[in-house]
Amino acid sequence: MSFWFAKSAKTFKPKKNIPEGTHQYDLMKHAAATLGSGNLRLAVMLPEGEDLNEWIAVNTVDFFNQINMLYGTITEFCTPENCPVMSAGPKYEYHWADGKTVKKPIKCSAPKYVDYLMNWVQEQLDDETMFPSKVGIRFPKDFLQSAKVILKRLFRVYAHVYHQHFPHIVSLGEEAHLNTSFKHFIYFVQEFGLIEKRELAPLQDLIDRLTNKDSSRS
Ligand code: ZN
Q1: Of the residues 2, 35, 159, 216, which has the fewest C-beta atoms closer than 10 A?
Q2: For residue 122, how far is its CA from the centre of ligand 1 (angstroms)?
C-alpha cells in the first residue's frame, strides 16, 4: 500500500482516493494491514467472503497510486530528450493505442506515453460504471477483462522505470520502495493470472529473482 511513500508527496497524476466509509475503504485497510505483516503471498490472496472483482478493483487503484508516486519521483529524468521512445531495455518498445479513441498506435516519447497511459487508467478508475465504488452497484460483466488490460499497461511503467531509470531511483534512495511495490504487483497478478507471461518478458529475470528469493526462505 501507499504508506511506503508517505515521505514523498509528489505524484505524477492526482492520487485516486477510495472514499472513507465504503466497503472498499475497509478492504483497502485490510490489505494494508496484511501487507504490514510482510507476507506478500498471503497479502494478495482474496480475503474470505469477499468479492473477487472488488478485491481486484481496490488493488488496481492502489497500484495506480503507487506507480503514480514512483513515476512522479523521476519525471525530471524521464524527458523526451532522455527517453525519446517508450522502451523497456533494447528489445522492447511500446507505441500508444487505447483501442478506442487511438486505434493506430502512436510512436511517442516515454513521458508522453506514460501521460497517455496514466490518463487512460485514471478515466476508467473514475468511471462509476466500470469501477463502482458504492455498495450495491454491480461490477460490469467485462470488469475482469478491463482490469487485465489496465494492469498489463501499468506493468510497462515499472518495466520502463527498471530498464531506463534504475540509477535515478537508486540516487533517490527509492529502490527498496520500487522493489517492494513491484513484487507486490507481481504476486498479485500471479495469484489471479492477470497478465500473460509474454507481457512480463521485459522483467522476467527480475521477477524470477524477486519471487525465488521468497520461496527459498519460507
Ligand atoms: Zn524515461
Answers
A1: 216
A2: 20
- Rounded average pLDDT over 3-25: 72
Which one-letter amino acid corresponds to residue 85?
Answer: V
CA distances from 165 to 13, 78, 112, 145 (A): 19, 8, 16, 30
| Better-predicted residue by pLDDT, 37 or 144 | 144
Q: How far is the CA of 212 from the centre of ligand 1 (A)?
A: 28
CA distances from 133 to 5, 45, 118 (A): 24, 21, 20
Give me ligand 1 centre to Cα 42, in Å: 33
| Centroid of ligand 1 to alpha carbon of 161 (angstroms) | 7
CB 57 within 8 Å of CB 12: no
Q: What is the mean pLDDT of the chain?
A: 90
As a whole number of angstroms, the distance between CA 156 and CA 86 comes to: 9
Domain borders along the chain are: 22-217
Distance 169 CA to ligand 1 centre (A): 12
CB 15 within 8 A of CB 65: yes
Does 1.20.140.30 match the CATH number of domain 22-217? yes
Q: In angstroms, what is the span from residue 136 Cα to ligand 1's centroid?
A: 41
**71 Cα–ligand 1 center, Å:** 9
- Please give the share of the chain, as a percent, with pLDDT higher than 70: 93
User: What separation in angstroms does the CA of 79 have from each of 73, 75, 106?
Assistant: 13, 7, 17
For the segment 155-195, what is each residue's pLDDT rounded down to a tens digit?
999 999 999 999 999 999 999 999 999 999 999 999 999 99
